[in-house]
Amino acid sequence: MARRFLVVAVLALVLPAGAFAATVHIRVEGQTRTIFAPTPITVTAATPLEALQKAATLGEFYYHITDTSFGPYIDQIGLYPGTGDSGWAFKVDNTSPPVGADADQLKDGDSVLWYWATFGAAGGPPTLSLAKSGACYTVTAFDDNGKPAAVSGVTLHVGSKKTVAATLGKQVCLKPHLGLLVRATATGAVRSNAL
């Protein structure tokens, strides 16, 4: 028994980080539109950086990494390079981790969101999350710490043509909309997942 424990402990020290990959969901929201997976796609990845790399392969989109003294930095996804106070950020389970995208260890079931953001004194913009129960939808906004945030102008988009006003945290029940995806937007917030 002690020998087996020692072998497992040694393997944990010498195996690459990818050996501890998790099954996670990923979505990439660009400056003006969804770049990858309006409904999150499942990939196997150890870190948010690796999840982005897998998504780029699946979605055939461009991203660029710059090596800095703080570690790798995603300075461009799709058409938009980071400039000044705007650039690319990520969240895991609605929270901005305190470490880089190459250092945050993912767990099975985590949700990774890469998104374009303009940063201010309070950090990045709130990110929206949409939940569904039957034909009813609820929108929640999260700040960088994963806490509920206030936003205005919440709108549900049913397909590409119909919009319905919504309020954070309150269900909006829609008429049948067979085959049309629903997503949420709000003033100054990152758009939600689609359901």
Short summary of the structure?
With about 200 residues, the protein is mostly beta strands. The chain contains 2 helices and 13 strands, in the order αββαβββββββββββ.
How is this structure best described in words?
There is one protein chain. Residues 1-15 have low confidence and may be disordered. The chain has 195 residues and is mainly β. The chain has helices at residues 2-14, 48-59; strands spanning 22-29, 34-45, 63-68, 71-77, 80-81, 86-92, 111-118, 127-133, 136-142, 152-158, 162-165, 172-173, 182-187. The chain is globular. A four-stranded mixed β-sheet has the order 2-1-7-6, covered by helices on one side. Strands 3-4-5 form a three-stranded antiparallel β-sheet, with helices on one face. It contains two helices and 13 strands; from the N terminus they run αββαβββββββββββ.
Key words describing this protein structure:
195 residues; mainly beta; 4-stranded mixed beta sheet; 3-stranded antiparallel beta sheet; 13 strands; disordered N terminus
Element string (H = helix, E = strand): HEEHEEEEEEEEEEE
Helix content: 10-25%
How many strands, which pairing sense, and closed or not: the largest β-sheet?
Answer: 4 strands, mixed
Number of helices: 2
Give the termini separation.
48 Å
Beta content comes to 35-45%
Oligomerization status of the protein chains? single chain
